[in-house]
Amino acid sequence: MTKKRLMRLGYLIALCAFCCGSAFATTYSFTAVVSGGETEVYGNCRLNQRTGDWICTLLWNAGRVSLTANGTSVAVSYGQTSTYQSVASALCAAMTPSFPVQCTGTSGGTLNLTETQYNTISVSSTSNYTDPNNIPPQDPTSFPITLPPITGILYPKYQIQSIIYSAPGNRSSNGFTATTTDGGVDTVGNSFQAGETFTFSLSGGFLGVGSTISWNYGNSLTTGNSTAVTSTISQATGVANASAGNSSPNAINHQQDLFILWINPAISFTQTGGSSATYSPGTQLQTSGDPSPGHPEIQDQVEVFAQSMMANAQGATTVPLGALVQQVIDGQTLPGLANICANPIYYPNSCTQANQCGCVPSDFAAILSADPLLNYSPTTSPLNADTSGATNCTNPKASASCRYVPVMVTNGSSTQITELLEGPTSPGGNYPVNTFTQTDSTQTTQTLSEALSTTVGYSWEQMWKPLGTGLSIKSQTQFTWTNTESTGAINGYANSMTVTLSSGTVYCYQEIPVFEDTVYHTFVFQQPVGNTSCP
Hints:
mainly beta; 41% strand; 535 residues; 9-stranded mixed β-sheet; 35 strands; disordered N terminus; 5-stranded antiparallel β-sheet; 5 helices
């Protein structure tokens, strides 16, 4: 059986010295593994025409093991006295200096191989006694040779995990619940060439246990889409966007929208074919000085308001210092938000609130672009941001492009859900509080036609080097997360959040329509035009 190795893992830079200078050559390392053992097989079989029985001779197996690089092969024979170690050693010795792949030695049945250019590699093991009709049934190969799966671990700089939108009312809040809800539905295929398929796998996951914020975050399969991973959020009552209090305005201020950013994500890739691979999100690995080097870190998530990432009057950002700097949790040193910045000259040891670790507004532009409502007024409809327009995004069809949709009282209804924002009826009076769990259970379950792409920098923890004709990442410096738009219970349960609408302003009284962000599955609000009772 032949298996093509279409990518290479691992790389090192070898310095070659010359009398008049030096040159650099890149050497790629990989392995091949011989296993098994010598066995007796039935061979020289003939059919007894009178009885219909097969008559065979019991023989020690014999055959050949080969490795082919770009059409050129080396092969060795095996027989009665062979072992997997001896076959591996003989195959290693057969790789002369002119062969495209060189063997630097063996360890048991493992051949340690190198190349200085990309080669298409295949391996095979055959028996001299294989009957073309497979009669009698047998698999006589004694020494199979395999190429271990080609894997890699990529470290994106960050991922936007959620946006919690500002709610109207100076005593209001908008946040997650204890029950499970969906976050984004993500794919990674846009980082690679057309025609290549990347399937999400739960089995390869290495998500660290615990988080730096008060929620449980995980990954799940996506119903109807094997290439996508759906993030799940639960036990998250401590993650909310709350108004400042009576002295603050009641008006929605989208510059107070709250971003949840994951700043130590990782993705493992495993080759499964010439143009296919599986992928699994996880957390970056602990390093020297951490309690368990090589094991996943705690999930490092930070909560940052949009306004703090925008330029103030002096042209500077105002991200809280605690979010920018490294933090040590359970002995693990986790990155700070400044790690995503292009030129964090003061990070990690000389950061101050004033110098922002060297971060500037342009470092956060891609994050802020994920929120098209930042400059919307309190009375502007979120549907104005929809590519397909308000009409087509009310009870949308799957062909529509709708970042925001109105949440209707029933599926297909023409009536949108509204909730009451109210203040005291007299100075010093009690504050009416309207707390409710908002869901999208009335929405049609479907994936819409548009997606939100966020491009970030990345590095390799374990290099996954693609071949010219195989899988190929588009950019050596940028990685793209793609979040699909969807409505309804994608994985069988409705998305939900807890919302409290309340005001300390006397005679404040507004009916607030509710919308859903189809990317992050959080809820958005709009204040009524002409009603000035809740300034």
